Amino acid sequence: MTLRQAQGPVGPASDAQGRDEQTPDTPTRDAGEPGAAPSENPADLDRQNPEAEIAARAEAFRNWGRWGEDDVLGTLNFIDAGTRRAAAALVRDGVSISLSQRFDTDGPQKGWRRRTNPVHTMTDTGTDAERGNQGFPHGIGGADDVIAMPLQCSTQWDGLGHIFDHGYAWNGRRAGDVVTSDGDLVTGIEHAADVIVSRGVLLDLGRHLAPDTGELADGYAITADDLDACAAAQGVEVGRGDIVLVRTGHYTRAHREGWGDYAGGPAPGLSLTTAGWLHRTEIAAVATDTWGFEVRPNEFDVPAFQPLHQVVIPNMGLTIGEMWNLDALAEACLDRRRWDFLLSAPPLPITGAVGSPVNPLALL
């Protein structure tokens, strides 16, 4: 099928989806047809013009319509039965490693945009049971608890309804038609509940680029060349349907020294210029050990906020994971000299949510 190209950073409307046609005379291209490739060298970015740099990549790497007008999974469509069968064959030692941070009040959040750390409250306790005031017969007692937390306060997935580009959501839908006060009515995270099981690939950029410490400096922008070089050094290939995990060492440092500005502060991360790499590798999802996935501060000298998110979530349809604890996995991979494994990381099927906490499991 074909997609109309946008005039500017936002793609066109589609009558089939009930929107007004905005660009009737613009040319069309196949969804998989490469356009003019934006530079993958961060030095080439116009640091005064984030709007143009974002727009160029949004247009070049947009997947709208690639899996049909009604698609709700984006690049998760790259995971299929064959991908999972091959991933299952990677389980050789029977070792299972959790890639999650702990969910408790000693977490990274500082309250920005009402993001708080989990609040765990007991509603029934052993003390109640000892005192026999729970009202149960024949001496039985129990404990119950409740947790209150933002869905993206710790190890989590960003769903496709999490970020918009100029008022448009994934697959060219109007943002207001997708996410309302009732939640994400179209691409809610529940659609991915049985999907995110695939081959995982760890790219340990911390060890590759900073072998003395295993930790990249805050503000280091990981490039496409860095990703390719790391994969080559580890002897692993990244391909269609993979879930790529990028270890920067930022979580390692925060775990050792205290959270500080881990949530929202300076951090190593992916450069905006890696958008092309994320697109052409046809990976299903990507996750990092940082709060925000991409390099912070962002790569502009004028106000900008998470430009790579703006390209890859609403335009590419890429699912992003953040705040993953990759340290134990990195050690296990280094010991075995292999960096691929079966990864199971389903979100909680929270109806209409735009993100979800997750306890990812790597099985080697």
| Low-pLDDT segments, ≥5 res | 1-34
CATH topology of the largest domain, anyone? Glucose Oxidase, domain 1
Characterize the largest beta sheet: strand count, sense, and whether it forms a barrel. 9 strands, mixed
Shape descriptor reads globular
The end-to-end distance, rounded to whole angstroms, is 40 Å
CATH class of the largest domain: Alpha Beta
In total, the number of domains comes to: 2
Within CATH, the superfamily of the largest domain carries the name: Putative cyclase
Architecture (CATH level 2) name of the largest domain: 3-Layer(bba) Sandwich
- The assigned structural class equals alpha/beta
In short:
Helices cover 22% and strands 17% of the residues. With 364 residues, it is α/β, with parallel strands linked by helices.
Describe this structure in words.
- Residues 17-32 have a biased composition (Basic and acidic residues).
- The protein is of the alpha/beta class and 364 residues long.
- The protein has two domains: 2-104 and 151-363, Putative cyclase (Glucose Oxidase, domain 1, 3-Layer(bba) Sandwich), CATH 3.50.30.50; 118-148, no CATH class.
- It has ten helices and 17 strands.
- The strands form five sheets. It has a nine-stranded mixed β-sheet with strand order 3-17-15-9-11-13-14-6-16. A two-stranded antiparallel sheet has the order 1-2.
- The longest helix is centred in the first third of the chain and has 11 residues, at 50-60.
- The radius of gyration is 21 Å and the shape is globular.
